[in-house]
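To whoever picks this up:

The nightly regression suite flagged Kinesin-like protein as changed. Nothing in the input moved, so I suspect the structure step. Input below, exactly as stored in the fixture:
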Amino acid sequence: MDQGLPSGVTVAVRVRPLTKSEKKNNPQSLVQVFNEHLLTFDSKDLETNDNRGGLRRRPKNVTMRFDKVFDQNSTSLQLFDQTTKHLVDEVLMGYNCTCFAYGATGAGKTFTMIGNAESPGVMVLTMQQLFNKIRDDPSTEYQVRVSYLEIYNETLRDLLVQNSTALVIRDTEGRDVIISGLSYRVPTTAEEVLAWLEEGNTRRSQSSTEANSQSSRSHAILQVIVEKKVISSGTSVSYQTGKFSLVDLAGSERAAQMRNTGQRLVEGANINKSLLALGNCITALAGMRRNAENGVSRAGYVPFRGSKLTRLLKDSLSGNCKTVMIANVSPSFSSYEDTWNTLQYSYRAKNITMNVFKNEKQVAVQVSQYKDMLVDLQEENKKLKQLIVCAEAQAIERVNAQEMNNIQVFNSQIQQKLDHYTPYLSQIESINQNQRHYVDLIKKKELQLIEMKANLAHEQLIIVCAEEIEEIKEALRQLESQLLSLSMNALKEEDAIRTLELSETFKLRVNKAIAEASLVSLKALLERIRNSIHIRRLEVELEMTRIKLEVSNYNANNATNHPPRAVVSPPIFKLPVKTPLRLHNTNVFSPTENTLRASKKLKTDTQITSPPIQKTKTTPTRRSSQTPPLPKPLPQGHPTRPSPKSDPMQIIQKKI
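Regenerated output under the current build:
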């Protein structure tokens, strides 16, 4: 073990930016940063027109030197690289390290230690750096343990446990401090630690105050213990244990300025009590160093037992620990006293010195002991292998041939069921695709109908199209009902298969033949539906072509004859008469269905013809103000005015 090396507290000051409200009240900065070590508080160059207590304010104009000073434009990553990053290496070497943020409410302590997604804080960056170092050293064995607690109203609570009870601080014989009942978790990655950190922050005590919308009402301590096993020359083993404490302190506040009442007032009193005790300890420790430098042998008293916080930070301030103190200050004149007190305590903390040594334990191991251990492990391995072989043999004997046969039969039945239902799935998916196609077609028809209503005054033509759309919808509904019946048939087939599993071999063969015949029938039915859909699609395309031709001829007639003329009705076209399809294997359908499918080919009886447009003579000198009358409604039974049928197949075939 080391004899101990003198080490002081590294003090860094971070000045946060002014908020919008602070800039509105006074845009001047109370703290001016000269370089990375010097700052000036309340410079004489600042305006002194504001009065306090009716008296003209006299600037303090104090220049202070710290180990590191970060201005308003600095980032958390820059602060981590220059203050805390090297502590990760110290912890891996077996030293104790502490980093804590000190300052008033709203000075930016929680942002510095925890941060957010865009700017992670010191705690997050430290965990990432720690596990990166461990990953880069695979030859060394590490074990990491993590705990997270808070001090709220002088009560310790475990933030990693739901509804944690109060924890107790105990002193060991070596004057170390332990926390009875505190839980530890063993992470393997930095992401796990960050997830636990977020989990603990959800349980941390926070509330809104005058200075901060999310003010921390407790002190939070994240403690990371790293155990490292080092083997030297094969004859000795050393265990190094480093402890890293990351502390986010609650901010000091004035009750009158914060306007706290009730529970907030009690919380503020306890926070100020613990921070006052911490300040007294810092003052006492700094005084002990001054006495030593002045040759005074009197030992000073440090009141570490003044609060739970100082008891936990005793080792960080006066024991075996390398400590970094980050003082967060506000440059606003509204935080004048708080900023001045923070800078004073931070300046005193620079005078604290400690003796730091490695936490290392040497364990001598002889080579002969390793050989004996190796022989014992090999013998134990052989015994375990023999036990495994015996256990496997006994397990195989317990399973007889009949049980294996039953398992094979059951597996074959399951496979048959899977093979049987696989074609059904593809068929149902095909029907669903056709159904979606018809739905899209109906939507297009509806859009076309709306356009025709807006651009044409031909109400009879609109009515005909609407009736055709309704007929298509009705046919689609009946197709959906057929799909439902197919699904019901599939369910019935499943029940039949379950019954067949319990039957004898002969019944299985008979039912299999019946199922194959049913499958052939279903395939024929699906073929019929596919052909009917194809026929309907051709019919709709032909009908839309006819309608577009009528409209174009009608518009051309109106556009070419400007003088008044007699109204000519739009041409009416007849659909070609087509014979229905005949499907093979008609014996699986009813007589009515076989009659509807009597033919295989579509024959065109008539061609689409357009009667010539009749023009009337007009007088060029006189123009009639009367608008052309609308065409007469089409008579019932006209080829372009279909009548609804009850059978969907007749609706599809009537245009052919």
